[in-house]
Amino acid sequence: MAVKDYIRERFFPHIWCQGCGHGIVMNAMLRAIDSLAMSKNEIVMVSGIGCSSRISGYLDFHTLHTLHGRALAFATGVKMSLPALNIIVPMGDGDALAIGGNHFIHAARRNIDLTAIVMNNRIYGMTGGQFSPLSGFGTKETTAPYGNIDHTFDISALSIAAGATFVARTTAYHVQQLTELIKSGILHEGFSVIEVMSQCPTYFGRKNKLGGAVEMLRQFKEITTPKGSKAKQANPELIERGILHQTEQPEYCNSYEQMTALAQKGK
Amino acid sequence: MNTNVKFVQGNEACVEGALYAGLDFFAGYPITPSTEIMEHLALRLPRQGGKFIQMEDEIASMCAIIGASLTGRKVMTATSGPGFSLKQEALGFAIMAEIPCVVVNVQRGGPSTGNPTHVSQGDVNQSRWGAHGDHAIVTLTASNHQDVFKMTVEAFNIAETYRTPVILLFDEVVGHLREKLVIPGKGKIPLVKRLRTAVKEGTDYHPYLPREDGRLPMSDFGSVHRYNVTGLFHDMWGFPTDDPQIVKGLQRHLVDKIENNANQVLNYKEFYLDDAECILISYGASARSALHVVKNRRLRGEKLGLIELQTLWPFPNQLIREKCEKAHYILVVEMNMGQILREVKNAVHFPEKVFLANRIDGSLISDGDIRNILRIVQGKGV
Amino acid sequence: MKIERCRLVFSGSGGQGVITASIILAEAAALYDNLNAVQTQVYGAAARGGSTRADVIISNAEINFPKVLQPNVLVCLTQESYNKFYPIIRPGGILLTDARYVKLNRKVDARQKSLPMYQNVMDQIGKPIVFNICMLGAVIALTKLVKPDSVMQTLSTRIPPGFLDLNRQALELGMSLGEQA
């Protein structure tokens, strides 16, 4: 199918600013889904609130646009109820890790088979540029006009510590790798986190004098390196891209099925 | 012994009612005094192929049941005051997105952590007005286990009929006390099945276009119709919109579908009203004490009657107005500072004849408490 | 059953099985003796230790108000619960205490029955876990509220078959103590 066939044209134009990274992520997501030849009827996209969360409405799947931070909790209900469905959860950094932080770590801990795509643009865009838990110390936002004194999370390290069994990271610049990682995340049985460093030239870029979308994308290229590369050894400041962690652990819905079988035998 | 006769807590009577109604997905978080509901379901649901999940918090439990309801399951969560507060945002989502679900609140003292192991009926107004924005809601309650069972089944039926969350507002006394429950045979109480769309694959399906009777046929997630569900104001396809006409239309629809059917969801009981000069109005555990007083006074020839409310919201204004027309006094018996009192005063022609007998210290209001107020009301001194 | 309505309060310390005994009595009455019964208990934050109280009402008529304000039968299995609850006994009621745990040091308008239940359980059965069932036997003998067989039927739905005999012994022991009292 063409990427266009996955889109609800009735819903357009989209709300994103020129130069926003979220459209790139949506495109990569659709290419990944298309390459897996999945039926649109077996895909449910669940999202919360924020710029990135609007992806769900634009796409022709079963789509559930929920509350700020709660997407993974709704998604857990859908998945538990019908484990045959493939659930993809597009999230923003504030949505996933500030207001939704508790749901995020517990979905990871359960290892329930959901694919969380965290679009990390280090800012609350929809409300106009306030700092998020991913903004970083010393950055500037409308709610940190004198410089941010909040420290950041490392999304990948947090996900691994919380029990996610597939954790990957890339950027909106590395679109082919992004498509491959989303594909692997969907195929992985268990909780998958794909962190995508995404640019918000309108707020984060402007406030922090990082230039426009092109300059921000160039920076993604310059400050990242493939996992395990020599460049990383030479320059530990570089951020690694690729699959950072992948293990096999019992998946939550499978465990529930086994527990159920036991309960039914014992009655 | 007939296995359909049980000696159980009210919380377990609620579980039996829910399972009878077809509950097959429960998500919850432990909280006193409702925890027994989730404990029993943790035992029962896996055995019969249903789904049970203990979530990370109260908010997540409410969200999870909404997700599961969209796949076609009958869903419920159970909580108490603090948890009920936390669930309000997602409850509002279920109202806006018209998702059938049942939310049990076994009330304890509040506000805040309050009086966790003691009785209160302080969440009556919260169950009506807890979610932000204009909306309508159905809230049911009961005073004994047979009625807890019945109202729980009714809650599921109303949730499915009107695509709405329904709140079961029980209290610590009814939730925890043990008494006999007779479980009716299959089919004795009619069950409402989910109304599903007859629209065929490939034909444009309008998930949010009400039929003439106001009902909206659903399509399960995973089946052939792919549509959008959102907490934003939305059009007939579920797409977000701020078009003033559509916003107004949906707002009206959400309120009208409940308020215009208030009589369809009205449940109450009446005792000795025919010649009653003094009418007690009560609900939940308080109604047990009120009925105790009414029966004892009737033995002495005093003309007391009782209206036991089982549907608290929408409040049955007309019923109260008509039934109380000839009463000399009306005494509202409840365990809060007058939440239903205000509604009754609002409903009747003579609000100055309406008095409150309440108790707010965590103990069940007793017949003595009610008798003391009655004496004052009747001018017999303190 | 002789009286139309009997109100009982069981009190003691957490872990003595006071609440379980109250449930068994009420369930026996409601499910096997065709009576109406309600049981309530006081909830606290602690699961073990501390004082505990359970109320039971048994009646041939419908029971609306479920709490007991003045019990016809008050059972106190600790000194603390005796000191706390003795004033609520209905005049002429039965106040049952265990001779080992409670010293009768109050004047009460009731039939005070201090029985060596714990001592007998330890001497004759050797298992403190059935102390509560022995107490229940004494209550039944003193009040004739339910049939002993109904209690045994209730127990059979709650405990493994291997423990039924132990409980029957305790129930009968309590009944004989109650009858002698």
Would you write up a description of this structure?
The complex is a heterotrimer of chains A (267), B (382) and C (181). Chain A has 267 residues and is an alpha/beta fold. In chain A, 39% of the residues lie in helices and 19% in strands. Chain A has a single domain, classed as Thiamin diphosphate (ThDP)-binding fold, Pyr/PP domains (Rossmann fold, 3-Layer(aba) Sandwich). Chain A contains eleven helices and ten strands. In chain A, strands 2-1-3-4-8-7-10-9 form an eight-stranded mixed beta sheet, sandwiched between helices. In chain A, β5 (123-124) and β6 form a beta hairpin. In chain A, α1 crosses α7 (175-187), α4 packs across α5 and α5 packs across α6 (155-162). The longest helix of chain A has 14 residues, at 22-35. The N and C termini of chain A lie far apart (49 Å). The mean pLDDT of chain A is 97. Chain B has 382 residues and is an alpha/beta fold. Chain B folds into two domains: 1-265, Thiamin diphosphate (ThDP)-binding fold, Pyr/PP domains (Rossmann fold); 269-377, 3-Layer(aba) Sandwich (Rossmann fold), CATH 3.40.50. In chain B, 37% of the residues lie in helices and 19% in strands. In chain B, β4, α4 and β5 (101-107) form a beta-alpha-beta unit. Chain C has 181 residues and is of the alpha/beta class. Chain C is built from six helices and six strands; from the N terminus they run βαβββαββαααα. Chain C has a six-stranded mixed beta sheet. In chain C, α2 links the parallel β4 (73-76) and β5 (93-98). In chain C, 48% of the residues are buried. Chains in contact: A-B, B-C. The A-B interface holds A 8, 10-11, 40-42, 44, 46, 56-57, 60-67, 70, 73-82, 84-85, 102-103, 106, 256, 259-260, 263-264, 267 and B 25, 27, 46-47, 49, 51, 53, 55-57, 59-61, 63-71, 73, 75, 89-90, 93, 221-224, 226-232, 237, 239-240.
Short description:
The complex is a heterotrimer of chains A (267), B (382) and C (181). Chain A is α/β, with parallel strands linked by helices and 267 residues long. In chain A, 39% of the residues lie in helices and 19% in strands.
* CATH architectural type of the largest domain in chain B: 3-Layer(aba) Sandwich
Indicate the CATH architecture of chain A.
Answer: 3-Layer(aba) Sandwich
Determine the CATH superfamily of chain A.
Thiamin diphosphate (ThDP)-binding fold, Pyr/PP domains
> If you consult CATH, what is the topology of chain A?
Rossmann fold
Mean pLDDT over the residues of chain B: 97
Strand order of the largest sheet of chain A: 2-1-3-4-8-7-10-9
CATH class categorisation of the largest domain in chain B:
Alpha Beta
Question: How many domains, in number, for the residues of chain B?
Answer: 2
> Regions of chain A with pLDDT < 50 over 5+ consecutive residues?
none
| The level-1 CATH class of chain A | Alpha Beta
The tally of domains of chain A stands at 1
Low-confidence regions of chain B? none
Quick one: overall form of chain A? globular
Give the termini separation of chain B: 50 Å
Order of helices and strands of chain B: EHEHEHEHEHEHEHEEHEEHEEHEHEH
Count the beta strands of chain B. Answer: 15
What is the oligomer described by this structure?
Answer: heterotrimer
Task: Estimate the mean pLDDT confidence of chain A.
Answer: 97
Strand content of chain A: 15-25%
What is the structural class of chain A?
A: alpha/beta
